[in-house]
Amino acid sequence: MNVAIYGGSFDPVHSGHLDTIKKALIKLDIDRLIVVPAFRNPFKSTINAPAELRISWLKKFCRPYKKVQVSDFEIKKKRAIPTIETVNYFSKKYKKIYLIIGSDNLHNLHKWYKFSRLSSKVTFVVATREGYVKAHPYIRLNVHQNVSSSALRSFSNNKFLNKEIENYYARKN
């Protein structure tokens, strides 16, 4: 079985994430797409929405897609998990693994924990994002939404967010 892993904080999950999922389902030769929300991103010091809430949002938004599974693997660990650990876990079950990352991660990709081992185990797939243009040898998902989770948390009436999620961040801020 071929699988794509799409990890991230999803803090909040937004239309750019959902577009990435839809395009991956169309473009990649996969039997399953596994969305893996992080307990805490190894490159960030804080999380705004609790893990349980982020995973429930993801499950709700991914429900219409039969090939998509939301995994609580990293959340159950209750710590920041390096991507290689997640890949090792899923590689026990799946033959070929695509790893979906946002183009904003390209400039630091070489700094990821055990990057050379990781790159030997996965085929990288890059979801494009406006403002992050860099040549790379990886499979490209043309998403091109000018949206970032950190920017979305700071304003309301947002076309990229579901109303429930928008209200949560409006109350929090």
Keywords:
6-stranded parallel β-sheet; alpha/beta; Rossmann fold; globular; 173 residues; 18% strand
Share in helix: 25-40%
Ends apart, CA distance between termini? 43 Å
Report the C-alpha radius of gyration, rounded.
15 Å
* Uncertain stretches of 5 or more adjacent residues: none
- The number of helical runs is 7
Structure description:
It is a single chain. By secondary structure, this protein is an alpha/beta fold. The protein has one domain: HUPs (Rossmann fold, 3-Layer(aba) Sandwich), CATH 3.40.50.620. The protein has seven helices and six strands, in the order βαβαβααβαββαα. The protein has helices spanning 15-27, 51-62, 73-77, 83-91, 115-121, 149-152, 163-172, and strands spanning 2-8, 32-37, 68-70, 96-102, 123-127, 139-141. It has a six-stranded parallel sheet, sandwiched between helices. The chain is globular.
